[in-house]
Design goal:
Order of helices and strands: EHEHHEHEHHEHH
Organism: Actinocatenispora sera
Radius of gyration: 16 Å
Strand order of the largest sheet: 2-3-1-4-5
InterPro entries: CPT, P-loop_NTPase
Pfam families: CPT
Number of domains: 1
CATH architecture: 3-Layer(aba) Sandwich
Protein name: Chloramphenicol phosphotransferase
CATH superfamily: P-loop containing nucleotide triphosphate hydrolases
Helix content: 40-55%
Distance between the termini: 26 Å
Strand content: 5-15%
Number of helices: 8
GO molecular function: ATP binding; transferase activity
Structural class: alpha/beta
Oligomer: single chain
Largest sheet: 5 strands, parallel
CATH topology: Rossmann fold
């Protein structure tokens, strides 16, 4: 039987730098590292079900929420299958539970990876830097009303790091993607992660 692959789950709001860290892990770490992030699963869903797994906090689409639960189940079953086949996996995730009712998706996902070597990494970035990155990518629309659905940055910042149980946290405003990858590699070398067993 193949040795199980390691799993690194990068959890943070959009534009926090997760994709760049994932790319650095794929470039720098030994072995094969597959990228099975939320964006990839989101784009596989038909247009009429969008934003699918990428639904932001705010309980705006309760009609989509049962599908979102199933999509996360499917994504994490795929992550588990890759790991059991000996492939390492890096996951660009945006976990939150700010739906119309609690969906407990993160706990469900943690249970699906029971017994596998998982490292849960919180990717943090100050709100001001996230705003700059969003403006550079998408323009400045939709940030005016702080704390409202029109303030996606504030909503993500609050929701994505709840409950905040991580094996490691990195700040992409002070560390480059390569530096974040190095910190993650050192954490892996220290021994098994404990965040996902706690979340399960």
């Amino acid at each position: 039987m193949e040795e199980t692959g390691r799993i690194v789950i990068l959890n943070g709001p959009p534009r926090s730098g997760k994709s760049s860290i994932a790319a650095a892990i794929q470039d720098r770490f030994a072995g094969v590292w597959m990228n099975l992030g939320v964006d990839r699963f989101k784009h596989m869903a038909p247009q009429r079900w969008q934003p699918a797994i990428g639904l932001r906090p705010g309980a705006e689409r309760p009609d989509l929420e049962p599908l979102i639960v199933t999509l996360y189940d499917a994504m994490y079953e795929s992550i588990a299958a890759h790991s059991r086949l000996g492939l390492n996996v890096v996951v660009d995730a945006v976990h939150h539970d700010s739906y119309s009712v609690p969906r407990n998706i993160l706990s469900r996902c943690a249970r699906r990876l029971h017994g596998l070597p998982v490292f849960f990494v919180g990717v943090r970035c100050p709100r001001e830097v996230l705003l700059q990155r969003r403006r550079a990518t998408w323009g400045g629309v939709g940030y005016q009303r702080l704390g409202s659905v029109a303030d996606p940055v504030g909503l993500w910042q609050r929701a994505v790091h709840d409950p905040g149980h991580y094996d490691l946290e990195v700040d992409t405003s002070v560390s480059s993607p390569a530096e974040c990858a190095d910190l993650i590699e050192r954490r892996i070398e220290e021994g098994p992660g404990s965040a996902f067993p706690r979340l399960a």
